[in-house]
Amino acid sequence: MLPDLTRITRKASADPTCRFTALAHHLNEEFLLDTWLRLNRRGSAGIDRQTMQDFDSQRESAIRDLVDRSRRHAYQAPPVRRVYIPKPGQPAKMRPLGIPTVADRLMQAAVARILSAIYEPDFLESSYGFRPERSAHDALGAIESLVFSHPIRWVFEADIRGFFDHLDHQWLERMLSLRIGDPWILRLIGKWLRAPIDDQGTRTRPAEGAPQGGPASPILANIYLHYVLDLWFARVVQPRCHGEAHLVRFADDFVVLFEDARDAQWFARALPQRLAKFSLKVAEEKTRLLPFGRRVWALTKSQPRTRETFDFLGFRHVMGTSRKGNFRLVRIPTPKSVRKFYVATKQWMQANRHAPPGLQQQELTQRLRGFYQYFGYGTAIPVLTRVRQAIHRAWWQSLRRRSQRSPRAWTDWAVKPWFHLPSPRVTQRTGNLRVSVLGSRMR
Question: What is its EC number (predicted)?
């Protein structure tokens, strides 16, 4: 029988102090099968090298085995396979990911669904990442609304250094125990946090952190930052402010918007102390306080090149001017976002340079449309157009190198029906799109 997650959510919402003491029985065959059908099938194999297809071919018996081990409290979290991927926009630097086995991924996803049902009523409006019916564009929309409708003059942009690497296990378990009273669920989460990490045959047990790559990591990160940042901001920071103050958080990425400089400066001093209590640190080189908002825009009309910008969720936010001469919030892809996309796409071209041109065109079209879909604000169209042109030129150069007899001139390729890539279009709603971003200082 499927657990009634809606009923769990209603109970959690009705009683914010309720501790759920009986949750493990929800991990039954029907619920795990339903969770399996919802899982992303693109995941890599874990330490046992079992693929999603392998598991699916024997899913009935595999799920029965998982349920049996869970009921006997005999389930052990297998080692997590560590892989390294290039950092966004920094292909020379690598970021570690933890890849659980497929079976462990299923167990994590099932528990994550239960945790989400309990914690969704607790999470505040300021939190947008990895939550149902919320997205990065909702967070961006919140910033736009605050900048336009509130007397914002200051923006504090911050970065938590290695958040997933330094998440404190004991603090997280204390936080979870406020809502979770089922000892087996708590033990399962503890097993995942402390599961051995296999790094090319060398195994270590982590004393802190949560490997990025497992389905449980996003909800655990949200729970941690709910107590560390969101509640502290709502209960301590906002009540002591002289003016308005608003937090917008997407996972471990956040910005804070202030009306009063005194509040912003106090927050900049208080945040490192707050994070340190929970074994976290601010990345000082990526953290700063800057003037930003409608009133700042008005004061800098005569000196537009002195205007500051800030980056959030891959977008650079700029104080621009509309066609009618009014303030306009301009959003364009950051240079880092553009570089990440260009490098990844060019690497794909190099690895598949001998594939049929028609198949290359299909892949490049799909990649560009995905890029347009995320960044498709009207103010970003000029940048997206330049990205398309750069990709098209790189593809042309790749095709020219395929053979000594390949056509050399662009015009020779342009007549071919498959040598076309889609142009960008507006996919995200915003206000007046005809704006000028010239004069805003790009850092």
Answer: 2.7.7.49
